[in-house]
């Protein structure tokens, strides 16, 4: 049986988009608030289907969702 690590951080997808620049802007906004994030590009390079996803630590989810709402309101 595998033992779970209490210090292991859980990451969740906060935002998905087809446009890399949108993910980069949101990542910058999160960094300004000292929220660490990671962009994972799941788009197919030839056909450009799939999403670009922005992941954050679960502990930061509430603050990040607030920033996301502001970001989406500005689009």
If you had to describe this structure to a student in words, what would you say it looks like?
With 75 residues, this protein is an alpha+beta fold. The chain has a single domain, classed as Hypothetical protein rpa1041 (Alpha-Beta Plaits). It is built from two helices and three strands. The protein has helices spanning 20-32, 61-74, and strands spanning 11-17, 37-41, 52-57. The chain has a three-stranded antiparallel β-sheet with strand order 1-3-2, covered by helices on one side.
Q: What is the averaged pLDDT score?
A: 89
Beta fraction: 15-25%
Q: So what's the oligomer here?
A: single chain
Kindly provide the name of the CATH class: Alpha Beta
Shape: globular
Q: List the helices and strands in order.
A: EHEEH
| Rg from Cα | 14 Å
**Structural class of the secondary elements?**
alpha+beta
Question: In summary, what is this structure?
Answer:
With 75 residues, the chain is of the alpha+beta class.
Features:
alpha+beta, Alpha-Beta Plaits, three-stranded antiparallel β-sheet, 75 residues
Layout: helices, strands, pairs:
Elements (H helix, E strand, L loop, with lengths): L10 E7 L2 H13 L4 E5 L10 E6 L3 H14 L1
